[in-house]
Amino acid sequence: MSDPGNYAGSTDRSIGQLVASATAEMSALMHDEIALAKAEVRQDVKRGAIGSIAFVAAGVFALFSIPVLSFAAAYGIHNLGLGLAWSFLIVGVAFIALGWLLAFLGIRKFKKVKPPEKSIASAKQTAAVLQKAKPHPRPSIEAAAIIERSAVSGSSLAKKGVEGGSGQDKAGSVARSST
């Protein structure tokens, strides 16, 4: 059988042992949850990458099909009885007309774009409030205190052996700063 001391409901265990056991189990549960989340995210990223690759491949094939379809359209028009040169000219003009139409639609959409008026108004309001705000007064720092701080912190003045205005050695100023 199993050891009764290892059973979670055992009355022989102290409260400290129960808390330690609960903490260890919660920690293990959290680690397992994190591992599960990582596995799910990894799987979703893999699916997303495969989907992206599929879309890129579809775009490449669609792009490669445009010249083939253009030739097919031109030869189709030629088979209706029109000369080959005129057939290609008609297909070329159709592409130019389509390009102009798309450019016209794009320009119309760009003209409808407006600046973010609410964000600009909010930024101006924030700037106005901040301009009216007064900074908190700061106490003036004496030159001797600045030199003493730099001597304690190991700045270039301390390396040259310049001490603070108090006349004490470095060990004394370090002892004072550590209290």
From TrEMBL:
InterPro entries, per database record: Phage_holin_3_6
Transmembrane segments: 52-77, 83-105
Sorted UniProt keywords: Membrane, Transmembrane, Transmembrane helix
Residue numbers spanned by region Disordered: 157-179
Protein name (record): Integral membrane transport protein
